Amino acid sequence: MRSVLKSAAAIGALLLAPVPALAGDVALLLSNTDYPDRSAPRAAAAADALAQRLRQRGFEVSRITNAAAAEAWEGVRRFAGTLDAADRVLVLVQGDIVSAGPEAWLVARYAQSPDALAIGGHGVALGALLRMLEDKQGEAVMLVASLPDAPAPGDGLAAGLGALPVPQGVSLLSGRWDDLLPIVADELLQPGRSVGAFLATAPKAVEGRGFVPRGVPFLPRGQGDEGLTERDFWRTVDILGTEDAYRGYLERYPGGAFAALARQRLAELETSRGDAAQAGEEALGLALEQRRAIQRDLSVLGYDTGGIDGIFGRSTRASIAAWQRENREEATSYLTVGQITRLRQQAAERNRVLQEEARARRAQLERDDRAYWARTGAAGTEAGLLDYLARYPDGLFAEQANRQLTEIERRKREEARAADRAAWDRATAADTRAAYRRYLQEYPEGAFAEQARNRIDALDRAEVDREAVEAARQQEALLTGLPPLRLAVERGLAAQGYEPGPQDGTFDARTRRALRQFQRANGLTVTGYADRATMVRLLAGQAQQ
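-> structure tokens emitted (545 positions)
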């Protein structure tokens, strides 16, 4: 009995001990420290030092330095081809970082203050890099090192990472380069050092997101197993009889003599655990509306359930499991009473926060709207009115601006020469960019020249947004096919202070305008159609009232 206990003690130590780092570790250093208007040689030297230390630790290092966007993406694609065979992955992104909503970018070397529309072609999307790492759960770290004195971001962009989400199991560490990089080599790359322990001693300005464990090292500490045979290892594993023990055996001996038996025992334990969890949820006897409420709560928290129909299919089960992992619960994909209560509380709190953010955003939008009207449209000039409507097509003063422009056009038509007016009528009848350009060629100083230019700009913008609008229109047709659902949309808008017009199940121009205002205030894609994201927010808001 004493020898068995001694073996059990040894196996326990080995199960907890990390495995030595393997030669398949890879790193990508994507560093922009030399922009046209400034350079950061010390930041570049810090990236060089990190590359040297990584090579000393056995990493195969790929570097992309001061590259334009296309060149950087080509290097990233080459690096992505090495990931399947890699054991551990470290990615450094260094330079000017900007964000918009849930996406962030590294600004490419030659980009000249791109705005939200142009950044896609002048930067490297960090969300795409993170998704590239999501198959390396627990074995991937991304470092985001920003430079000081970055220029102000372009329109629609903010400095920093913003609300960039991190995939399950991936660690994201961010901060200024001089806070982050000098300590990475000495702390994070020390064998046996975990991401959580690294953050505990890092400067306060260094932020951690995603997977930040305290007990799991990024680079494991080597430890021998002399004197302990595979049979000794298996004997103690089988005595313990736990899932962790069997997984520990398979990690150390993936092709071992007892590997097939270990997998069988592991499958039996997992099946038993899953069956018990399923039986426990079935015993709750959840009604259809209760299941829909669970899907609605998951959706509010950002999980994709594939719909709010009360049917717990593959997407809903995957969302439940993801929520359980995020909340340190066993990921069975089946819920208990306590978990349902906790999920409901989290969704209620998240919805409260979202509504407060929407109210604050709406108030700020209205302040900005009034201020812009005072600077442009309030004077009643055609240029000012057009400028206002270009920025706020559904703004507080949009109807007034359109009435004034109609009157201005009426006066101009009376004053315009007959040929000019006829040419303008032909252009508006066609309503194409080519037709308006022909008008401007014939009458570059014509009475309707400014309107023609603005209409060309509007058609250009409509072309960019057409895909999103069409997708939203199709979603609305599927989601609001029944009159009660269309009424629910109108009532939801009215309940939150918007003006959708008569609540009769018919979506007219006022309904579309109210939808766009709601979407803009809630940070959603602005289409004027009740797509899935809009329905979730509207119905969630009603459910909490």
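Confidence is low (pLDDT under 50) at residues 1-23, 223-227.
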